[in-house]
Write a structure and sequence with these properties.
binds uridine-5'-diphosphate, globular, 11 helices, Rossmann fold
Length: 338
């Protein structure tokens, strides 16, 4: 059994499916602070069986002890975290309590249970406003806000933890920009708040569910002036988590390094305008849009160097912009139809 914290979140729920399909059943832990319980129905309809779900907070040490006693947990995939940049700026203590405090509570519970195999969902935000066209894992870390800083802090914490005991095997996966949805249309991004990825915003604007898309900035030093990101299909990210999990589950003598930090991206950037064109081309729906000033704290360009993922995980992204757009649109259309 695998404990998946943040199990009903965007990345967590898709990861649960990838793990189950690989014969690794999960216990999903989530406090439902930013994802709806209906995610569980989507998971059940896709996989044909109800997921094992525990509603609770990763900061609840007693609950974690109970879970480790109740289930034969071999490893943890840790995705429970708050991720809204603006909210983090307004409530830094809340963010650090959840993201850093939650990770500390989890690690201590893992140590009590003798479970020392962990995959942590980190984020490309650790790089801040990067100067490099493609970011290797060795690029300087320059987090711009509390949310990003909490990811850096947890990675550093995990570095110390891995060094403390020979049984630890830990991956920190720096996820670039997750988009898309499960191809069934039964699972996708469903946050309670307003933090939506660009493709979800486009799909909602195309569906007339929200005002036209505001394109934040047209004077960035990028080929067409709009921001460039390394968008990655959430199903690819889920497979990336699975690949890391399979590695930490391996037995054998303790390696010298026990904490690996890996970028999960496609290694290819798309600008806002390029993604918009891809959406219109592949879904056949127009995205009403307007120009808006730059959004505070946004970087011009963020693209992964994915060499390490290929070499260490034997993983690479397979799905391109067409699949991202079609799946994001199918998910939004289904939400609209309900
Ligand atoms: N973006 C935009 N309009 C929106 C949302 C996002 O122009 O309504 C741009 C944003 O400036 C950035 C890119 O789309 O260049 C990706 O934004 P998102 O919030 O999805 O991810 P992040 O900024 O965290 O990389």
């Amino acid at each position: 059994m695998i404990l998946l914290t943040g199990g009903t979140g965007f990345i967590g729920s898709h990861t649960a499916l990838a793990l189950a399909q690989a014969g690794l059943p999960c216990v999903l832990l989530d406090n439902l602070s930013n994802s709806p319980e209906s995610t569980l129905e989507g998971l059940a309809r896709i996989s044909g069986q109800a997921p094992v779900f525990e509603r609770g907070d990763v900061r609840d040490a007693a609950l974690l002890d109970t879970l480790f006693k109740r289930h034969p947990i071999r490893a943890v995939v840790h995705g429970a975290a708050l991720k809204a940049v603006g909210e983090g700026l307004a409530q830094p203590a809340l963010y650090h309590d959840n993201n850093v405090g939650g990770s500390i509570t989890l690690i201590r519970a893992m140590e009590r249970a003798g479970v020392r195999r962990l995959v942590f969902s980190s984020s490309s935000t650790v790089y801040g406003n990067p100067a490099l066209a493609q970011l290797p894992e060795t690029a300087p870390l320059a987090p711009l806000n509390p949310e990003a800083r909490s990811k850096v802090m947890v990675e550093q914490l995990l570095h110390d933890v891995a060094a403390s005991h020979p049984d630890w095997r830990i991956f920190s996966l720096r996820c670039f920009n997750p988009v898309g949805a499960h191809p069934s249309g039964l699972l996708g991004e469903a946050p309670r708040g307003q933090t939506l990825n660009l493709l979800t915003v486009m799909a909602q604007a195309a569906a007339g569910q929200r005002p036209p898309l505001s394109i934040f900035g047209n004077d960035y030093p990028t080929p067409d002036g709009t921001g460039v990101r390394d968008y990655i299909h959430v199903m690819d990210l889920a497979r990336g988590h699975l690949a890391a999990l399979q590695q930490v589950l391996q037995t054998g003598p303790a390696p010298d390094t026990r904490h690996w930090v890996i970028n999960l991206g496609r290694g290819q950037g798309l600008s806002v305008l390029q993604l918009l064109q891809a959406f219109e081309q592949h879904t056949g729906h127009r995205v009403p849009h307007q120009w808006a000033p730059r959004r505070e704290g946004d970087a011009a360009s963020w693209v992964a160097d994915v060499t390490q993922a290929r070499q260490h995980l034997g993983w690479q992204a397979e799905l391109g912009p067409a699949q991202m757009c079609v799946d994001a649109w199918r998910w939004q259309s289904r939400l609209l139809g309900e």
